[in-house]
Design goal:
The complex is a heterodimer of chains A (803) and B (172).
Chain A lengths: L14 H5 L14 E7 L5 E7 L9 E5 L34 E2 L5 E7 L2 H9 L2 E6 L6 H6 L12 E8 L3 H6 L3 E9 L11 E7 L4 E6 L4 H11 L7 E4 L16 H13 L3 E4 L2 H7 L6 E9 L5 E11 L9 H9 L9 E8 L14 H19 L3 H8 L8 E6 L5 E4 L4 H12 L4 H10 L3 E13 L5 E7 L5 E5 L8 H13 L6 E5 L16 H28 L6 E4 L2 E4 L2 E7 H7 L9 H6 L21 E7 L5 E13 L6 E11 L6 H20 L30 E5 L22 H13 L5 E2 L3 H9 L16
Parallel strand pairs in A: 1-12, 8-29, 10-11, 14-15, 20-21, 27-28
Antiparallel strand pairs in A: 1-5, 2-4, 2-6, 3-5, 7-15, 8-13, 9-10, 9-12, 13-14, 16-17, 18-26, 19-20, 19-25, 22-23, 23-24, 26-27
Helix pairs in contact in A: 8-9, 9-10, 9-18, 13-14, 17-18
Chain B lengths: L5 E8 L2 E8 L4 H8 L18 E4 L2 E4 L12 E3 L6 E2 L5 E2 L2 H8 L9 H14 L8 H8 L10 H15 L5
Parallel strand pairs in B: 1-5
Antiparallel strand pairs in B: 1-2, 3-4, 3-5, 6-7
Helix pairs in contact in B: 2-5, 3-5, 4-5
The chains are: A alpha+beta (803), B alpha+beta (172).
């Protein structure tokens, strides 16, 4: 049967338009619109003392110039704190256009609207903004020292103190046979989708309605934000996420200033207005992630079993906290990974710096947590002379211990209770896949070629699919076409394909008949958004429930027509039939026509349906009480809590002791995201995640100088991996279905990136015998480390030998 | 005040002669996207680094964000919209690289894809098609463009697959 498509590598339905140049990204829409451009702060911290636009007014083609003074009502108020938290005691957000003080290079100060972007940039060049420079805070250590304050009224630079503990960690550490402590750093990187942000707004004067296309991960929330900030009625605002050229987290933040300002200008000017972010703008005015300082103390017994873990962290949240403290909370709660940690305490201060805001980037705090936990496991192994895999094994949560309660509170406010998993199974598969037990042979072979070889591993558990909900709508038309929509957005994950597979499977229709729309508020008004590896879990299950609702109604109608029992019916290839009696059947499209008692014979389907229509019962209304016309159903999936995916990665690196170039020669992934809808798509997500993990471990960093200038704000200087930097990835799957949702799914989007930094750091340390305590690491830094007499030497460990 | 003068240029775009008047400072990428409304060519970095904007000028891959529109006066430009062939019946026959990208799941968000397709099409058409493609050739063809979604594994796979299709004489 072609309709049973769950788990099949179905080719993507998105692809044809994208490979022929017929995709529609935000910047492809709205030919002839006015163009917006922005004057952005060149200083990291300064007071605006004057804005002179006189010279700009002479430019041919200038249409409008806006500063903070032009903002009225809610637009003149600070941008929202999207996710408040009781521990976020000093939240701060900026204004759509800076008011008085700028807090990072790139903050928008003036918006220009002109006939085209070239002219708009000319206008920007002629606007003179006078600044009085203020002291600049860059980096977590400077923020902690708080010699200067980012925000005048937050003198200690601390936005939040996040704190969770599961017992008396100090007593547990005191009672531990062994303890060790260390400090490590992880640098900033960023999502860097190939398409920057973009906004296109059209105001319809005739019916006072606004249509906005924006490159967002959360169109329904952008809609609500625009309505609130521009004081429009919600039903007069529609927001569409068209084709989106990658997101990876940065486009979940909303409303971006431009998402408010561009519609504001479109309304004021009565003309379509368009803005496409350029790459430099993306570097200096979107969002970054990752930077943390971590101080870790662990207690353990002679066998390497952890008895207590105490983590003190400092998280750089940049200049503002519009997205709350999601990233440090995720670090804090996901840090424990697949391990049973008897007593755990975590305290992370989220601190302000005069840099671009920090909001989730694929992994969203998990890579940092994994880096903390996994490097701790490595150190325990080194201290006791045990194999690193064996120490991990001894600490794993057992297969029979699910549901496993960590007694922590997750990002969604719900308990961290792992739903299912088999972590020892992951480890066994990883050891086999990467050839862990052959590491010493390989080390010797590499040495014979003059290379230093090292191997490292890292495991993780990833809370995926957090609520509160997503919805799905499924409708069968008289043509047989099945329309599916969900409010959740897409940025390349193949949702049109995966959701169509789910509907084809649940409803028993050919996938060719299914059309999926995502992220368009005209089609579905309630949604949360695409983040936290939640699309398949949340919208996938909501759509499955909606399809089941349609199926139930179709069977009920067909049972009446065919005079059969509902339980005797099945739907296959779009035909409802009595099981085992193929002749007794009715096409689903005909059922769709019959579902609506108003049946004007506009088309053949309606005419045909009349032959099935019964005489009708004059004692009952044509639409029964509680029923509705049409073969459609809306349903929502709202989980009790997140589901927990897991995995294990290993990296083999070779280092050239002349150039200190680090090459990842092998990369192995064992991945468990529960039941899989489309293995081709899941593997694609893993490949992409691993590439970002390698980038974060070896190449990508935001090079801020002490003045808060981002020195590498272009693709020429910010090094993202090309094909030459990404190793071949071998993947093995394990499937432990989630018991929490109807399809047994767990999220798969972010996993690939999570253990990259941890396992590559471990591999490099294994290769060179020097402590790696700051990531990413460049060949130059490695060279300096190996030559430094102060570098901590790491005892040579034998890998792959059972202790 | 106008900072630019305009010039009328004649360009053959995807086999069709076009005449358009552009400011002399207009980038080829902007002229294609905004003046000719061929929005399949994407701009990812404006610095010639990412390759998303790659088009063919007289058959050679060129980063259209680093070329002025006036520089292609009198030349032939091929964009992703011109990669598939007309099948003579109102439909189209995809280029082998397009077929391969779809077959091998070599794209996710699709934003970098046009640049990869144009680079790969030119690279595979220029090579000796009687021989099997080598890994070095694949690395050379794929190695100059950035993709943030796929991790490149499936793009390399698509390159091998397309080379095979073109070797079999099935291609353009």
């Amino acid at each position: 049967m072609t309709t049973k498509l769950m788990g099949e590598p179905v080719r993507r339905r998105e692809d044809l338009r994208l490979i022929t140049g017929r995709g529609r990204y935000t910047d492809d829409i709205g030919h002839g619109a006015l163009a917006a451009a922005f004057v952005r702060s060149p200083y990291a911290h300064a007071r605006i003392t004057g804005i002179d636009v006189d010279a700009a007014l002479d430019v041919d083609g200038v249409v409008a110039i806006y500063t903070y003074e032009d903002l009225v009502g809610p637009m003149a108020e600070p941008l929202p704190v999207l996710i408040p938290h009781p521990q976020l005691t000093a939240p701060r957000t900026g204004y759509p256009l800076a008011r008085d003080v700028v807090q990072h290079v790139g903050e928008a100060v003036v918006m220009v609207v002109a006939t085209d972007r070239y002219v708009a940039e000319d206008v920007c060049d002629r606007i003179a903004v006078a600044y009085e420079e203020l002291p600049v805070v860059v980096g977590v250590d400077a923020a902690r020292e708080a010699v200067h304050a980012v925000h005048e009224d937050v003198p200690d630079n601390v936005a939040a103190r996040h704190h969770q503990e599961t017992g008396d960690v100090e007593a547990a550490l005191a009672a531990s046979t062994h303890t060790l402590s260390f400090t490590q750093y992880i640098e900033r990187s960023a999502c860097m989708p190939m398409e920057g942000k973009g906004v296109h707004a059209v105001w319809n004067r005739d019916d006072s309605s606004l249509r906005v296309h924006t490159s967002t991960q959360a169109s329904t929330s952008v809609r609500a934000a625009i309505a609130a900030k521009l004081q429009l009625s919600l039903e007069k605002v529609e927001v569409v996420a068209p084709d989106v050229g990658g997101g990876f987290g940065v486009k979940i933040v909303h409303p971006w200033p431009e998402e408010l300002l561009v519609p504001m200008a479109a309304i004021a000017l009565g003309q379509p207005v368009h803005w496409a972010e350029d790459r430099r703008e993306h570097f200096i005015s979107s969002a970054h992630e990752r930077q943390q300082r971590q101080e870790i103390t662990v207690g353990y017994d002679d066998g390497g079993r952890v008895t207590a873990l105490d983590v003190r962290g400092w998280h750089d949240n940049g200049a503002y906290t519009p997205y709350g403290i999601i990233v440090p909370i995720v670090t804090a709660t996901q840090l424990v990974g697949p391990y049973a940690i008897p007593v755990y305490r975590v305290r992370i201060d989220s601190v302000y710096t005069n840099t671009v805001i920090v909001t989730p980037y694929r992994g969203a705090g998990r890579p940092q947590g994994c880096y903390a936990m996994e490097r701790t496991m490595d150190r325990i192994a080194q201290d006791l002379g045990l194999d690193r895999a064996e120490v991990r094994r001894r600490n794993l949560i057992g297969k029979d211990e699910f549901p496993y309660d960590h007694h922590l509170t997750f990002q969604d406010g719900r308990p961290v209770i792992y739903d299912s998993g088999d972590y020892e199974g992951l480890l066994d598969k990883l050891i086999a896949l990467v050839g862990w037990d052959r590491a010493e042979e390989r080390r010797a072979e590499a040495a014979s070629r003059g290379k230093q070889l090292g191997i490292g591993m890292a495991m993780y558990v990833e809370g995926t699919g957090p609520g509160p909900y997503e919805g799905g709508h499924v409708q069968v038309l008289g043509s047989g076409k099945v329309l599916v929509s969900t409010g959740l957005t897409s940025q390349g994950q193949g949702h049109e394909t995966a959701f169509a597979q789910i509907v084809a499977h649940e409803l028993g229709v050919p996938i060719e008949d299914v059309e999926v729309t995502t992220g368009d508020t005209r089609r579905f008004g309630y949604a949360v958004g695409t983040f936290a590896s939640r699309a398949a879990v949340m919208s996938g299950n909501a759509i499955a429930l909606a399809a089941r609702g349609v199926r139930a109604k179709a069977l009920r109608i067909a049972a009446e027509v065919l005079e059969a029992d509902v339980d005797d019916l099945e739907i296959d290839e779009g035909v409802v039939q009595v099981k085992g009696t193929p002749g007794t059947a009715i096409p689903l499209r005909t059922v769709a026509v019959l579902s609506n008692p108003l049946r004007y014979a506009f088309d053949e389907a309606a005419r045909q349906a009349t032959q099935f229509a019964g005489p009708g019962d004059d004692s009952k209304p044509p639409v029964a009480v509680g029923d509705a016309p049409g073969l459609e159903h809306v349903d929502y999936y709202s989980p009790i809590r997140s589901t927990f995916a897991s995995g294990a990665h290993a990296a083999v690196v070779e280092i050239d002791p002349t150039t200190w170039e680090i090459e990842v020669v092998d990369y192995a992934v064992v991945h468990d995201c529960g039941n899989i809808v489309n293995p081709m798509i899941v593997e694609g997500q893993v490949h992409g995640g691993v590439a970002q993990g390698v980038g974060g471990a070896l190449y990508e960093r935001m090079a801020y100088d002490a003045d808060g200038q981002l020195q590498n704000a272009s693709f020429m200087d910010f090094l993202m991996p090309y094909a030459s930097e990404v190793p071949d990835v071998v993947i093995d799957h394990q499937e432990t279905p989630s018991p929490l949702n109807p399809l047994g799914l767990k999220g798969a989007g972010e996993a690939g990136v999570i253990p990259g930094t941890a396992c590559i750091a471990s591999a490099i340390e294994d290769a060179v015998g020097r402590r790696i305590a700051a990531m990413p690491i460049s060949p130059t830094e490695l060279y300096d480390l190996v030559r430094s007499p102060d570098a901590e030497r790491v005892p040579a460990a034998t890998t792959g030998v059972p202790a | 005040m106008s900072v630019s003068t305009e010039r009328t240029i004649s360009v053959t775009v995807n086999g069709v002669s076009r005449e358009t008047t552009v400011p002399v400072r207009r980038l080829l990428s902007d002229a294609l996207r905004h003046d000719l409304q061929l929005t399949g060519t994407h701009v990812g970095c404006e610095h010639g680094v990412c390759g998303a904007c790659t088009v063919l000028v007289d058959g050679t891959p060129v980063r259209s964000c680093l070329v002025l529109a006036v520089q292609v006066d009198g030349k032939a430009v091929t964009t992703v919209e011109g990669l598939a062939r007309d099948d003579g019946r109102g439909g189209e026959v995809l280029h082998p690289v397009q077929e391969a990208f779809r077959e091998c799941h070599a794209l996710q968000c699709g934003f970098c894809t046009p640049g990869f397709l144009m680079t790969m099409a030119a690279g595979l058409e220029a090579r000796d098609r009687t021989t099997d493609i080598t890994e070095d050739e694949v690395d050379e063809i794929v190695g100059g463009n950035l993709c943030r979604c796929t991790g490149y594994a499936n793009i390399k796979k698509a390159c091998r697959h397309a080379a095979g299709l073109m070797k079999d004489g099935d291609g353009a």
